Amino acid sequence: MPKFFKAQQGGLLPFYWLDGKIRNRETDGAPQVATFSQAMDYSLVIIEGIRVNVNERGKYFGFRLKDHMRRMVVGWEEIGLRSPFSAAHLEKALRECLIKNIAFLKKSGKKEAIYVRPKIYVTEGIIKPFAGSKTSVVIECFPFAKYLPSDGISATLGDYVRTHRHSGYHTKGAGKYPEYGRLRDSSPGEYSDVLQLGIGKGGKLLFTEGTTSNLFFVIDGELHTPGLDDFILAGMTRDSVIKMAKQLKIRVHEGEMPLSHILEADEIFLTGTASFITPI
Q: Using CB atoms within 10 A of its CB, is residue 28 exposed (0-12), middle (13-18) or buried (19+)?
């Protein structure tokens, strides 16, 4: 099993938020999704991933909670569906869920980072894709250790090539991560991530992003990263890195990243809420 899946993660924390109410796994059971639902059949699911870190004093810090919730709701609207809750409502729900689970961890004598996984999905089990629109939202949490090694990883090129530019890549939609299964099947120590490809102008191959992270090259002291029109997620950490680089007077190029860039790069790294900044 590759390093990617060796993160020491505990089980799901007991409290979760579902459709307007905080629930407890021990008394209410776990949230359920029907195997015949449109979430399963037609991938009508938008997810988010938010890491909440904890310092030595036990204080927790969430990263851009409001922006994550806004991206999820906007992504849902982009596929033509309406969220039953506003982004502001979901941010408040996320904070309530975190407060309950942090209190549980502290009572248990534990001090661990938390990963939050909100999902918005169609729950009805109807064959016709437009026949049902009942939507649920769930927010779950679990203890989270290291996601990718901070001292650097190995990566390989993806087998799938993205050919159609559309805004759906900007959000974390189900079915967007076909290379994830390849990581599960890789040999131990073989590689920890897959660099995904797209088709650019004139039919040339481009770098797009990692399996679950955005991609940056450092060339002659300047940052190069695919633009938002180049098949990529509008990553929160990506956005923060670009803003900090500009504040430090480091030039940032956003646009097509041809494969030839890999021969010119002095450094390559990934960015993500879970992976932070990870060198390749």
A: middle
Structure tokens at 162: 């993205």
Residue carrying structure tokens 């999704």? 33
Bridge-based pairing state of the strands 135-143 and 214-219: unpaired
pLDDT in tens, 11-61: 899 999 999 999 999 999 999 888 888 888 888 899 999 999 999 899 999
Q: What gap in Å lies between CA 154 and CA 156, rounded to an integer?
A: 7
| Residues 65-91: tens digit of each pLDDT | 999 999 999 999 988 888 999 999 999
Distances (CA, A) of 55 to 11, 58, 95, 112, 113: 21, 5, 18, 9, 9
Give residue for tokens 């909100």: 118
Question: Is the full-model pTM beyond 0.85?
Answer: yes
Handedness of CA 266, 240, 100, 21 (dihedral sign): negative
Farthest-apart Cα atoms in the chain, separation:
59
Q: Are 58 and 111 in contact (CB under 8 A)?
A: yes
- Spatial neighbors of 44 by CB under 8 A, at least 6 apart, are 38, 79, 81, 121, 122, 174
How far, in Å, CA of 90 to CA of 138, rounded? 10
Q: What is the pLDDT of residues 116-138, one digit of tens each?
A: 999 999 987 666 655 556 899 99
Residue 10 has pLDDT above 60, yes or no: no
98-111 pLDDT tens trace: 999 999 999 999 88
DSSP states of 194-261: EEEEEE-GGG-EEE---SSSEEEEEETTEEEE--TTSS----HHHHHHHHHHHHTT--EEES--BTTH
pLDDT at 3: 38
